[in-house]
């Protein structure tokens, strides 16, 4: 059985963003999903995405309604549910 992964999404809120990233850096097997607004928030807080990419896969959605991120997230959740006993 594959080890489960955690999907973490960053949207347009910066509340506790630095603390969240600190926690994520201590976890393994995390996929980070970032919306367009999330990328703007990270820039406002001076977070370098290249540093995050070194620690985990980062998926960036450039569309306004984020259908690609939602589709990827639903697919990942469905795969995890299939692997549960």
Produce the secondary structure layout.
Blueprint: E1 6-10, H1 17-26, E2 30-34, H2 36-44, H3 49-55, E3 58-60, H4 67-83
Parallel strand pairs: 1-2, 2-3
Observed structural traits:
single chain; 85 residues; alpha/beta; Rossmann fold; 3-stranded parallel beta sheet; 4 helices
Structure notes:
Helix content is 51%, strand content 15%. Strand 1 (6-10), helix 1 (17-26) and strand 2 form a beta-alpha-beta unit. It has one domain (6-83): Flavin prenyltransferase-like (Rossmann fold). With 85 residues, the protein is of the alpha/beta class. It is globular. A three-stranded parallel sheet has the order 1-2-3, sandwiched between helices. The mean pLDDT is 83. It has helices at residues 17-26, 36-44, 49-55, 67-83, and strands at 6-10, 30-34, 58-60. The termini are close together.
CATH architecture group name: 3-Layer(aba) Sandwich
The outline comes out as globular
Query: What is the element string, with H for helices and E for strands?
Result: EHEHHEH
The structure class reads: alpha/beta
* Tally of separate helices: 4
**CATH topology group:** Rossmann fold
pLDDT averaged over residues: 83
Q: Distance between termini?
A: 10 Å
Number of domains: 1
CATH class: Alpha Beta
Oligomer: single chain
Strand content: 15-25%
The CATH homologous superfamily is named Flavin prenyltransferase-like
By DSSP, the count of extended strands is 3
Main sheet?
3 strands, parallel
What is the topology, as strand order, of the major beta sheet? Answer: 1-2-3
Cα-atom radius of gyration: 13 Å
- Tell me the helix content: 40-55%
Parts with pLDDT < 50 across at least 5 consecutive residues: none
């Amino acid at each position: 059985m594959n080890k489960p992964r955690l999907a973490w999404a960053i949207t347009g809120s910066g509340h506790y963003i630095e603390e969240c990233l600190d926690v994520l850096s201590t976890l393994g097997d995390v996929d980070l999903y970032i919306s367009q607004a999330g990328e703007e928030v990270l820039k406002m807080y001076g977070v370098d995405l290249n540093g995050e990419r070194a620690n985990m896969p980062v998926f960036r959605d450039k569309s306004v309604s984020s259908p690609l991120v939602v589709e990827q997230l639903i697919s990942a959740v469905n795969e995890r549910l299939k692997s549960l006993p």
